[in-house]
Amino acid sequence: MKSIKHIGIVLVLLVSSVTFAQVKFEAKVSKTKLGINERLRVDFEMNKDGDNFNPPSFSNFTVVGGPNQSVSKSWVNGVSQFKKTYSYFLSPKSQGSFTLNQATIEIDGELYKTTPTKITVTSAVSKPKDGNNADYIASENIHLVAEVSKANPYLNEAITVIYKLYVSTETGVSNWREINSPKYSDFWSQNIDIKGLKIQNGTYEGEPYRYVVLRKTVLYPQKTGKLKIEPLSLDLTVDVATNRRDIFGGRLMTQVHKTVSAGERIINVRQLPENGRPDDFTGAVGDFDFKVTTSKTELKASESLDLNVQVSGNGNLKLFELPQVVLPSSLEVYEPEHNENVRTNLSGMQGDISDSYTVVPQFKGKYPIPSISFSYFDVKTESYKRISSDEIIVDVTQGPNNVAATTPSATTGENKQAVVLNKDHFAFIKTKTNLEPVASSHFFKTKLFWGSLIVPFLMIPLAMVFRKQKAVRDADVTGNKIRKADKLAKKYLSEAKKALNNKEAFYIALEKALHNYLKAKLNIETSEFSKDRIQELLTHKQVDASVVSDFTSLLESCELARYTPSTRETMQHDFDKAASTISLIDKQIR
Fold it and tell me: What is the fold, at CATH topology level, of the domain defined by 287-410?
């Protein structure tokens, strides 16, 4: 009996030791069902430290925070307990049912995996109306709006979409990033460049707000019916005033993350009327002028003239074809050269397009260029209009007579004649010259002669000393990089440092410094500046991802900091961060 009792005790101890030594690695979520306007927290917990932690891809979510790492150790009844956690904060990209895949980690040479977790994302849910809740205050004081100039345009009529971020006077935005870009799959679209964010005063639902224009886009619908514009969505870091105050009585601010969306917009595109539509209508919509001109109306046979067919005005200039010319067979016509001089602004495309034909007459005579018509739809009068050019007579004063025109064997299959070359084609080349000898000057044995002969020999010792010092300096690779980086940082940030007492001037100068540095370092123009383009170029130059992220966050801070509560300490922090980031980029760039 005693032996059986002892065996039982041993088994209990073995089971207990195995239980205490068991490795746990699991994923915990704050909720399994949430609205698209809510956040999800995911914790990956382990009871023993490990290496090579790999989170899931989070492909259906945007990571708005994390990974945050925490470690805790404690003793309970004489037993050591360890816990390590990796935390992520996620924002859903769309509604639906999704699966958080497995995370992996290596512990004591073994690979451990978490269990996949199903998450359901519903439509937006209402949040409690708590005046002291920072999330609620942010949702009530920040709004992203898409303003559409016309909700029921005609096919190929220009409309504009302007995205505005409204921020109340009691709230600020210290950082933002785009998580969903609007899509215009059934439109011809053109973004209008915005040079910096300009803070303006306005109203939202009758209340005073400040706002910035984030994006301007011109659209030309290419289909009729109800067309969808996908929404623009942003992730914001919002500064919200609290009820707490500092020792000087100023209100303390707290930061919360918020996702805002401009909402989906539906554009009802009308078909162009069938009544009165010309047979030669090719889809031109707008307000246009039309003209046909020639570079000359009198010339000799085998000389050339330019025939120009041009449409100018305001409308869908790049989206229709110009009418073609039909000329007499005795005029040799070459394929036209198409030219576009079009600019796009908020009222749509403006400028002109043209087809330039080279025409060569072969025989003497008078040749009519018949009238050409161009038709378009005028959206102002909602009617079709036609413009016709005048007939142009081309007078060929010299050349062979067209006596072979009636002889079938002398014509080609298309009733066109071979171009007759002019005997004086090369008459402009001069065959006689008028050369004169160059006057010589006495140089031998002058002071300049002896100086030019001796000075190079005197410079040899100095060149050797300079070369030796340069070799020593070039060998100091690390020192050279540090000196170069510090020099660039001082050069580009000097103006910003002078303006530390003026918030708006400081951030303008800081933004200009960052842009000028990139322009000099990456050889790109200001028009190429975009967050994605900068990240792509710096990553291609082998700059660390964390440094690239710091640089883009600085640019975003400069754009919005002018209407965000800021102190001198904040500006000094941004200045120091900019200096260190420029220095790091200059050291790492390849």
Answer: Immunoglobulin-like (2.60.40)
Would you say residue 471 has pLDDT above 90? no
Positive/negative CA dihedral, 281, 285, 291, 295: negative
Tell me if 80 sits within 8 A of 73, measured CB to CB.
yes
Q: Which residue has the tokens 């004649």?
A: 417
Residue (of 60, 3, 58, 51) closest to 25 by Cα position = 51
Sheet holding 298-299, edge to edge: 298-299, 392-396, 365-369
What are the structure tokens assigned to 277, written together?
């539509």
**Are residues 138 and 238 in contact, defined by beta-carbon separation less than 8 angstroms?**
yes
The CATH number of the structural domain formed by 477-588 is 1.20.120
Quick: pLDDT tens for 122-153: 887 766 555 557 777 777 888 999 999 999 99
Higher pLDDT, 83 or 348: 348
Give the sign of the dihedral formed by CA 190, CA 200, CA 570, CA 196.
positive
Residue 310 makes CB contacts below 8 A (sequence gap 6+) with 290, 291, 292, 293, 352, 353, 354
Structure-token pair, residue 553: 């966050």
- Tell me the C-alpha distance between 5 and 11, whole Å: 10
d(CA 434, CA 245): 92
Eight-class DSSP state of 526: G
Say if CB 216 and CB 346 are below 8 A apart: yes
Q: What is the pLDDT of residues 226-243, one digit of tens each?
A: 998 888 888 888 888 766
* Whole-angstrom distance, CA of residue 131 vs CA of residue 182: 33
- Delimit the domains of the chain by residue range: 21-122, 134-269, 287-410, 477-588
The yes-or-no answer to whether 21-122 and 477-588 have a common fold is no
Pairing of strands 117-122, 33-35: parallel
Instruction: Say which residue the tokens 């690979």 belong to.
Output: 111
Cα 233 versus chain centre, distance: 16
CA distances from 351 to 151, 217, 284 (A): 25, 18, 14
Q: What is the DSSP letter of 527?
A: G
Please tell me whether the peptide bond between 67 and the residue prior to it is cis, using omega within 30 degrees of 0. Answer: yes
Tell me the β-bridge partners of 288: 313
What CA–CA distance (Å, rounded) separates 541 from 518?
Answer: 12
Fold held by 21-122: Immunoglobulin-like (2.60.40)
